[in-house]
């Protein structure tokens, strides 16, 4: 009840006389495309290409230093993916690309068992890119590679485990293939560019400028909710005895919180570089600075937590930082839901929390 009273107060406090279709919304969409979406996918394509090359080098000449290089490239790919992970629109949604890139959560460890089974039986259908792409999504992406490069038996890669390395190589090639195709669509598809930047009734994304702005704010809100609920809450419980460090995403590689930090950085880039705050009335422009400050605090905290989840949870001070991070994300959600959206005239008829 207090939320709705507060939202009603904000709607009265800030005039909602925004004139839709005055050009600002198109600039915001263009900014998002040129300064966030395309650069993020370009960076992802570059890092996955580098990952594929490092794994190939490891397979050609197995040694500890090359395994270390492949692991470093994996971490770079995790960060690149995480920075654009919650932008769920456009070509990334086609052909199960999101799930193929990173299958998570892995319910009842079914995906893990598939990876372990493929390694144990040395099934040849995970060694060829085309055959791998027709296989289970759990075998194709970051989750599988997390186990292959960092899980039980990963040390054999430095000693010349050819099958395991070729499996990793097929995954690296698949990740690059997905990234390159998504990037190519955003860079070369003129219809996609027009649909993203010019809302109209035949548009595949949004029919009106207001609907487009709802989509941008919705991306921020749903992304923050996903970080809290599917990245942090899966391992951090109210009672310390019920914490579940092995339920964390990418826990074997120790990349869990690095991924969370990159998630937050990506959402902050979308907010700042799209310049969506320009739709606010003059008296509410301070909200942009407030939201950036909340993002900065959240990102700083997440970056300070760059250790394996099990180590963080076993240290009361570090565990408290994770709890603070979760609270900071809640603050951000409140800023966007209860302050920014109403002030921008976006609250009426749109529930960010429910995804309507």
Termini separation = 20 Å
Radius of gyration: 22 Å
- Parts with pLDDT < 50 across at least 5 consecutive residues: 1-17, 348-356
Annotation, overall tally of beta strands: 0
Shape designation = globular
Strand content: under 5%
| Main sheet summary | none
How confident overall, as mean pLDDT?
A: 92
What structural class do the secondary elements suggest?
mainly alpha
* Number of contiguous helices: 14
Measured as a percent range, the helix fraction is 55-70%
How are helices and strands ordered from N to C?
HHHHHHHHHHHHHH
Structural write-up:
The protein is mostly helical and 356 residues long. Helices cover 65% and strands 0% of the residues. The chain has 14 helices and no strands. The model is unreliable at 1-17 and 348-356 (pLDDT under 50).
